[in-house]
Amino acid sequence: MRALIFLIQIVLVALGTIWLNYHPGKVQLDWQGYHIETSFTVFMVSVLSFLLILYVINHIWSMIVNFP
To answer: How far apart are CA 42 and CA 5, in angstroms?
Structure first.
């Protein structure tokens, strides 16, 4: 049953990726005089990468704090 759920999740991610490939959106940010314009896919990859880095830093910090 777990394998079936995993395969369904993989298919949904693949379908979402294909849909984003055919329907790319635009993201425009104006912040303190800077103008950033990129596609939605690049923006989401950047946000997810940033969150992954924060997760790793948090995990390392909690390992240091909880070290016996």
So the answer is: 28
| Helices marked H in 1-68 | 2-22, 40-65
Contact 29, 43 (CB under 8 A): no
Range of the domain at 39: 2-65
Element housing 35 (H / E):
strand 34-39
**Which candidate, 53, 50, 47, places its Cα nearest to that of 27?**
47
C-alpha dihedral over 62, 66, 67, 68, to 10 degrees?
A: 180
How many independent structural domains does the chain possess? 1
pLDDT tens digit sequence for 37-55: 998 888 989 999 999 999 9
Q: Rounded to two decimals, what is the model's pTM?
A: 0.64
